[in-house]
Write a structure and sequence with these properties.
Helix content: 55-70%
Strand content: under 5%
Structural class: mainly alpha
Number of helices: 2
Largest sheet: none
Number of strands: 0
Shape: elongated
């Protein structure tokens, strides 16, 4: 397990590939260290998304 902060788009893409690899496994068969890796990578990816892909509330629909 080689986890580092997600600082760039390439870091983010690499983290998402690894998350995908880990989530394609049977969760009950995932060793503890890989489950921990999944938790940490998910938290780091979420933090990156919140920082770089801010979701603004949509404009309200104007009724007629």
């Amino acid at each position: 397990m080689n986890i580092k902060p997600i600082k760039t788009k390439d870091d983010y893409k690499a983290a998402m590939v690894r998350i995908s690899e880990l989530t394609n496994s049977d969760p009950d068969a995932l060793p503890d260290n890989e489950f921990d890796e999944l938790e940490v990578l998910t938290a780091l990816a979420e933090a990156y998304e919140n920082e770089h892909y801010k979701n603004e509330a949509p404009d309200p629909v104007i009724g007629h």
